Amino acid sequence: MNSSKPEGERLSKRIMQLRDCSRREAEQYIEAGFVRVDGVVVEEPQFRVSQQNVTLDAHATLLNLQSVTLILNKPAGWTDGLEPLPVARSAQPGRQSEPPRAPRGPQNVRSLLTPAQHSKHDHSGVRLLKSHLTRLDASVPLEYEASGLVAFTQDFRTQRKLVEDMPFMEHELIIDVRGEVLPDALRPIERAMRDERLRLPDFKISVGSANPERSKLRLAVKGSHLGLAVYLCELAGLDIIGMRRIRLGRVSLGDLEEGTWRYLAEGERF
Questions:
Q1: Distance, CA of 14 to CA of 32 (rounded, Å)
Q2: pLDDT tens, position by position, 27-52
Q3: Percentage, residues of the chain above pLDDT 70
Q4: Terminus of the chain with fewer CB atoms < 10 Å: N or C?
C-alpha cells in the first residue's frame, strides 16, 4: 500500500500565509483569478506547490466578487438543465477503476457550460473564470424538443426574480410548422383563446412568415407553460417542425450560436 504523501502544500494554504487570511478567503482569491504560480494564473485551491513562485495580485479584493448569469442556446433534444449533472463516483481503494461510460438517456445541457462552448461573440467583457461554471441555479424550464434560451445564475437576486416574477414574465417562441399558414388558419386558436372553460394563459400568436414549404409562427406568452405551443398547433391542425425560445422577459437570444453560451451583460435585465 502506497502511503506517500503528496508533494508540497495546497495553494490555498500558501495564500493563507501570504495574505494572513482564512482558508475560505484564500480559496476565493484563487478562484477569482488573483493568484499566479510561476507567472501563470491558477484557479484551483487544491493545486499543490513547493518551490514555485506564488504571487497574489496587489489589487486583489474580495469586496466586489462577481456573481454571474449565463445565457445558453439549448439544442433540441437536450434536457433544460434544471436537473444537476450526475456526480461521477471515484474509484474505491484497491479496485481497478472502470473506463468511463457513455451517458445514458438525454444529454443534460449543463454539460455544455464549458470554456470550449463559450461563444466567440460574447461582448459582455467578463473575464471567464472556472468558478463561473459552478454553483449555477436554473429555474425556467424549456421543452425537451425545443431549442433556445435557457438561463443559469449564481446571483440570488436574479434567481429570485426568475422564480417570483415568472408568471408575469413574457416568453417569446418561434414555431416552425410545415406548409404555408394563412392568417385564417389560426381561427381555431382564437376561438380557444376566448373560451373561458379552457383557462388558457394570456398569449399572442401570429404568422411571421409563410411559404409553401414552411411557415414561422410567433408565440408570446406570460409565464412558462410547457406543452402550450404543441396544444395550440394541434387545435389548428399544424405540423410542428421545430420551436425555439428567443426571448425571456427583456433578454433576447440574439445571434448566440446553438450549443454555446454567453454572459449576461451589465445593463441586461430580465
A1: 16
A2: 878 887 888 888 888 888 888 988 88
A3: 91
A4: N
C-alpha span between 251 and 151 (Å, rounded): 10
Where do runs of H (alpha helix) occur along the chain?
A: 11-19, 23-31, 156-164, 187-194, 228-235
- pTM as predicted: 0.78
Angle (CA) 199 224 231, round 5°: 55
> What's the 3-state SS for 121-162?
CCCCCCCCCHHHHCCCECCCCCCCCCEEEEEEECCHHHHHHH
CB neighbour class for 122 (10 Å; exposed up to 12, middle 13-18, buried from 19): middle
DSSP strand pairing (170-178 vs 251-252): unpaired
